[in-house]
Amino acid sequence: MSYGPFDRTYTAAEDRYEKVPYRRTGASGLDLPAFSFGLWQKFGTDYAFATQREIILHAFDLGITHFDNADRYGPPHRAAQHNFGRVLAKDLAPYRDEIVLSTKAGNAIGPSPYLRGGSRKSILNSLEHSLRDLGTDYVDIFYHHSPDLDTPLEETVGALVSAVQQGKALYVGISNYLPDRTHEIAEQLRAAGVPLLIHQARYSIYDRRPEQNGLLDTATQDGFGVIVYSPLAQGLLTDKYLETIPEGARAQNSTFLSPDVIDETYRQRTAELNKIAAARGQSLAQLALQWVLRRPEVTSALIGASSVAQLDHNTAALDFPDFTAEELALIEEHGVHGTGLKL
Ligand SMILES: NC(=O)c1ccc[n+]([C@@H]2O[C@H](COP(=O)([O-])OP(=O)(O)OC[C@H]3O[C@@H](n4cnc5c(N)ncnc54)[C@H](OP(=O)(O)O)[C@@H]3O)[C@@H](O)[C@H]2O)c1
After folding, report:
1. 325-338: pLDDT as tens digits
2. Is the minimum distance from the CB of 240 to ligand 1 under 6 angstroms?
3. Is residue 255 part of a domain?
4. What's the number of domains the chain is made of?
5. Does ligand 1 come within 6 angstroms of the Cβ of 299?
6. Do 184 and 191 meet the contact criterion of CB atoms below 8 Å apart?
7. In a domain, 334, yes or no
8. According to the UniProt entry, where is the signal peptide (predicted)?
9. pLDDT for residue 253
10. From its phi and psi, is residue 31 left (phi > 0), alpha (psi between -120 and 50) or beta?
11. Rg (the chain; Cα; Å)
């Protein structure tokens, strides 16, 4: 990355496409970087904008072409999209064609019945607002953030299809849907001529639900890609919490990661995983990312970061040899589903 005079202009690194591999998203024609970047935490008004900008631009310089957002991300809600929009306008506008921009609608962002759920009104209003905040005419991927069992699936499908037909989204995705409803929406979307591109699901060494509930099999069957969120279990799958909770870490300053989960069982299992990583010459964070990406159903690992150093470190995760059967068995032994999870 280089900045022009007075830090006003940005020129992307010329070698940015030589750094991370790109993987095909399900049966579509769209490639995504093996690592995508999410703006869920530390991209609201609570963190320095200069640092946010530095991280976003560094990600792009590393070949991370895919940025994941949602109307909900902040704090306050919508702030992360507004902040990303500032970077897009100031620095990334010349590269808009090289960026896959995602947003989501459907998780509650206020008490109004129109600021949540899967209704046509909620979904399409949210998209309009997101486009304004991001300062763009279209997003590349538009997601329904979570299933809404109180709204007919047909209505949600109709809203997603309209977003594409209106040219406001190129592809559609879903997040947090269980396999049966995923299959159902995939069928309805296919029938409407707007195939389901991608499913965003939580998956890590400590959260095995997509393996256990059959979501990864549904992905193969229905031809969509899987992008996994919280592959580091929000930082629990790093060595940072082995001794103490460091100043400024998410377990100290976020309502989404309680310090209560950092107990003796967590520390024992994580210390064992850390030893397996060390024996491979990599860090636990790198092992955890390489582990989710070993699955062919997984298109991309959606990571967060609070510094450029974390990004550099994490995107080196694929520089190591594939896991042996013995290593995978050891990871199974200590990577117990549910460790560190409250939900
Ligand atoms: N669809 C959904 O419902 C949903 C839900 C959650 C997330 N997401 C998406 O997924 C994205 C990623 O989620 P996530 O942030 O939970 O992912 P994650 O990669 O599991 O956790 C990222 C956090 O771990 C810490 N970290 C990262 N690398 C580290 C390293 N090398 N050493 C030590 N600590 C490190 C950082 O937190 P600190 O430094 O602050 O401790 C960082 O912000 C989100 O931004 C969002 O786009 C989607």
Report:
1. 999 999 999 999 99
2. yes
3. no
4. 1
5. no
6. no
7. no
8. none
9. 86
10. beta
11. 19
Q: What is the pLDDT of residues 207-264, one digit of tens each?
A: 999 999 999 999 999 999 999 999 999 999 999 999 999 998 999 988 899 999 999 9
Residue 161 near residue 123, CB atoms below 8 Å: no
**Which CATH number characterizes residue 204's domain?**
3.20.20.100
Does residue 107's CB lie within 6 angstroms of at least one atom of ligand 1? no
Residue range of the domain that includes 186:
11-233+289-322
Residue type (1 letter), 321: P
The answer to the question of residue 280 being in a domain is no
Tokens of 205: 């060494």
Query: For atom 26 of ligand 1, which residue has the closest CA?
Result: 235
In a domain, 271, yes or no: no
Q: Is 175 in the pocket of ligand 1 (CB under 6 A)?
A: yes
Which letter does DSSP use for residue 233 in this model? G
Per residue in 162-220, pLDDT (tens digit) is 999 999 999 999 999 999 999 999 999 999 999 999 999 999 999 999 999 999 999 99
